[in-house]
TrEMBL record:
Protein name stated in the entry: Prephenate dehydrogenase
Similarity annotation: Belongs to the prephenate/arogenate dehydrogenase family.
Organism ancestry: Bacteria, Bacillati, Bacillota, Bacilli, Bacillales
Gene Ontology terms, MF aspect: prephenate dehydrogenase (NAD+) activity
Reactions it catalyzes: prephenate + NAD(+) = 3-(4-hydroxyphenyl)pyruvate + CO2 + NADH
Species this chain originates from: Paenibacillus hodogayensis
Domain of life: Bacteria
Keywords attached to this entry: Amino-acid biosynthesis, Aromatic amino acid biosynthesis, NAD, Oxidoreductase, Tyrosine biosynthesis
Amino acid sequence: MDKVAVIGVGLMGGSLALCFKDKPGIRVAGYDINPLELEKSMKRGVIDVACASLEEAVDGADFIFLCVPVGLLEQYLDRLLQISLKPGCIISDVGSTKASIAHYAASRVLPGVYFIGGHPMAGSERSGVEAATSLLYENAFYVLTPDETTPEDIYDRLAALLKHTKAHIVRVEPQRHDRIVGAVSHLPHVIAVALVNQIARYNEEDGLYESLAAGGFRDITRIASGHPYMWRDILLNNRDELLRLLRDWNAGISKFTDLLETSDGEGVYREFESAGAFRSKLPERRKGMIIALYDVYVDVPDHPGIIGQIATLLGDQRINLSNIQIIESRADVPGVLRLSFRNETDMDAAIGLLKKSNYKVQL
Ligand SMILES: NC(=O)c1ccc[n+]([C@@H]2O[C@H](COP(=O)([O-])OP(=O)(O)OC[C@H]3O[C@@H](n4cnc5c(N)ncnc54)[C@H](O)[C@@H]3O)[C@@H](O)[C@H]2O)c1
Ligand SMILES: O=C(O)C(=O)C[C@]1(C(=O)O)C=C[C@@H](O)C=C1
């Protein structure tokens, strides 16, 4: 029986625990500083046993996952190394930055105990175990950062366990990880937050801003609701990369300012054209990258009952909808519904059914 200890049973830790829970030969122990999160984890059946201390959780553990904010990883690693861990135990983490923890672990881990950094490229603006789901990592990329001292069989053991997440495991060198993830994840969060705060200031003067903020604003700013504590740690930890990225961002914004100052319509057109071309090449249905779920857009007349009709249509055929959202809605004008599915099979079945019922469906 393998014992998996999850330290920090929130969104990421809880989702990992759910992937391992009830799998043959695996027992999941959880520890969290917040007893309420542990209580909720037990109630939801996320873990097999809730532990009152770190020591109890990791006692005899074969795998330990540190799922706490990035700023706590080093101190947790130190605490673990003062505990007598099971020989062969593999410690990993899910932190959003990898260079600093990899560097720290390289100088500290004891013989017979191994550290391999990890970062699943999936998540959400929500936090806490209530938002955890066993489906979070499905099809997402899951980065592992072994170094040259990591024995191959140890890496394989961790990768084999992580198969339960149904994620694609990729090996990435920690600095390269932080450079790329800084650009595709950390920078977008900073931009979203700056944008929301800018609009919030205008809204204080005129509340109509809030009312007119429609699909475009919501699409680009969802991630601005991320947990402040978690994001503070990530941004400070990846500070050097972010400073470089923000300088580059400022240059991009200055370019737009110049284009508008000179009324260069051609130039504006070209910026949108090249952005659209790059974005359309990105894999559409991958988690953790562009969209979190399998989304379908349906044109619908905006009248009461339409959501119920579509939900019933799908429900009658046992197609599971995971979310439904009105993207645009004005009286008597067609709106767009975003239907989200957990997997491709449900999505494809829904597309077939909706088309047969004469709905206009787009991906
Ligand atoms: N949220 C995402 O989208 C996402 C994606 C990938 C990686 N990550 C990384 O995952 C980690 C966890 O993030 P999350 O989104 O699950 O956050 P979360 O807030 O949902 O969960 C964190 C958990 O850690 C617990 N915790 C806090 N301090 C602790 C301590 N001192 N000891 C024990 N437990 C403690 C909290 O009570 C909470 O239950 C972070 O390092 C984050 O960078 C997050
Ligand atoms: O989808 C989201 O809401 C996320 O913020 C997930 C996201 C991302 O930026 O893609 C955020 C932080 C991570 O470390 C990994 C994934």
